[in-house]
Amino acid sequence: MTHSRSVRPFYRPMRPRRRDEPNRAATPLELFFDLCFVVAVAQAAGSLHHDVSEGHLRHAAVSYLMVFFAIWWSWMNFTWFASAYDTDDDVYRITTLVQIAGALILAAGVPRAFTDGDFTVITYGYVVMRLAAVAQWVRAAAGDPAHRAAARRYAIGVTVVQIGWLLRLALPAEWGIASFVVLGLADLLVPAVAERPGMTPWHPRHITERYSLFTLIVLGEAVLSISVAIQTGLDAGDHGLWSLAAAGAVIVFALWWLYFDRPVEAPDRLPYSLIWGYGHYFIFAAIAAVGAGLVAASDHERHLAHISGTTAGYAVAVPVAVFLLTVWVLHVRPQQRGALVVAFPVVALLALLAPLGPMPVHLLALLLTALVVLTVLLRQRDLRSAPEASGPDPT
């Protein structure tokens, strides 16, 4: 189906987009949606940094994983729906803006969730986003007879789970984590059940681009965290943070390089697409946590944190290891062979050992640099061994 963008109506039937649509790219509304989610990511990373610096490690990890799940899951569901059914009429835009408003409500509740364990505001924001998504699925069910069964399952499943999230607010506090896990699993099961009658027509290359763009946004949040930490230190007259800042920047640059080293595309079969899409939770959460960990390491360097140097090192090393292992599972192992398949888990293991020695952040930067160099050398070797695949020399 060809979508005319010259004149945008207030309402048009929600027809499916073509999975083979050429030149499919992210829209300004999708980019605006991502940008507004930066607020929630920044709140989660900032609260994680504060808890880690104060030594509340278990509370930091549990709260961060729960909060980031709400952020990531809302973003992911909008992204896959938009890939299949973006009509770009006024009703679609207004509904999406409601979802963005829900994201801002969620972001406003992040500090309270960390400090008091109160997820009330986060839940309200999450439910606003998800119920707006239900309205979109109802439109899809009406406009796309071929995928009506899937759209209805989405609408019903999401609605039922949202009722569960609201009822969770009335449960005793000691049931908080267990009920969150149950409802989180229920949310994750909705796409697996809904897509069984026939996958909705999301666009694999468009999905890949959307995930890449959100990866860049989270990386940017990590860079901002480093910049703010260094600025704070310099304003306080502490000029000894330059070395730590350089090592932190190398780590973030290496994460970018390793994620984008070779082109990838979202799998187009249901089980693999779910694994690929769900697995990015760990990539996104790990990148944001690296930024928080680097700020905690900066606090330790300035004697402002109530943690040891080893703990500060692990605040960076653990998310780095999670990132490497997830990229290995999703991108490297399915497509690569030889040394690179071994190198990623080996470097992840060495990253977890780095905090046991001196200057762990610097050692992590060296390990990641070595892995980047290895990926470059192996890629060049592959190009030399298959010159016909590289095409004519542009010079």
Automatic annotation (TrEMBL):
It holds the Pfam family LtrA. The keyword Nucleotidyltransferase does not apply. InterPro entries: Low_temperature_requirement_A. Keywords: Membrane, Transmembrane, Transmembrane helix. Signal peptide: none annotated. The chain crosses the membrane at residues 60-82, 94-115, 121-142, 154-171, 177-194, 214-234, 240-260, 272-297, 312-331, 338-355, 361-378. PANTHER family: BLL5714 PROTEIN. This is Low temperature requirement protein A. It comes from Micromonospora vulcania.
